[in-house]
Every structure is written in structure tokens, then in C-alpha cells.
């Protein structure tokens, strides 16, 4: 009689410990997993955005300021500033219209060489494209 009651008490005790352990484990899994996933996806998007044939115009700067591409590559400039900018080759090979915010300009570099560009509105903005 006495051992039977002690046995029941032990089963109840073990059962509640097991439930506590499972719920604690789930709690940890639920709080850590969703936190890590979006951060990893953001990091991947950033690497994709910096494509090798694109130059971003932001904060009155061409980024990257030096770009190397293969002959036949079309380079795309995108202005993210609220101010208009232009893309001008100092040798007169090409000259874009004023690019408003989020406007893009493209030029295909067929011949190898070193091409200097600047902004016609802010001539201190410069970049160099090397075509191999
Ligand atoms: Cu400019």
C-alpha cells in the first residue's frame, strides 16, 4: 500500500519534470531560430546587390570608384541621391543626361582601355573603369 503510493508520486513527479524540460526546450528553439534566419537572408541580398558591372551613385560618390570589366560588358550606373548627377567620359566617348533619383544609365564598353568618368554637375565626383 505504502510502496504503491510512493510509486504513483514518483511517476507524477517524473512526468511533470519531463513536461517542463520539453516546454523549456521548445521555448529556446522558438526564440532563437526565427531571429537568425532573416539576418542570414539580408547578408545574402547585400552580396547580390554589388554586381560586378554596376556602379551606384550615392552621397555624391561613384561606388565602386574603380571597376574592372571584360570587353563587351555593359556597365549600369544608378543614381540613389535626391540630387541629379550625370555620367561623363573625359575623352568624350559618352555623356548621360541628368539622372534623377533611381534613374539609370548604361554604356557598353567594347574596346579594352582605361576610361575615366566624372559627374558633369559635380566634377569632383570621379571613377575609373578598366576594360580588359
Ligand atoms: Cu553629381
Distance between the termini: 92 Å
SS summary, helix count: 1
Query: Could you describe the largest sheet, including whether it forms a barrel?
Result: 4 strands, mixed
CATH superfamily of the largest domain: Cupredoxins -  blue copper proteins
The appropriate CATH architecture of the largest domain is Sandwich
Low-confidence stretches: 9-34, 40-50
Reading off the top of the CATH hierarchy, the class of the largest domain is best stated as: Mainly Beta
Total E-strand runs: 8
Question: Strand percentage, roughly?
Answer: 25-35%
Question: Can you describe this structure?
Answer:
Helix content is 36%, strand content 30%. With 132 residues, it is of the alpha/beta class. A hairpin with a 2-residue loop joins strand 1 (54-58) and strand 2 (61-63). The model is unreliable at 9-34 and 40-50 (pLDDT under 50). The chain has two domains: 1-49; 54-131, Cupredoxins -  blue copper proteins (Immunoglobulin-like). The protein binds copper (II) ion. Residues 85, 119, 121-122, 125 line the site of copper (II) ion.
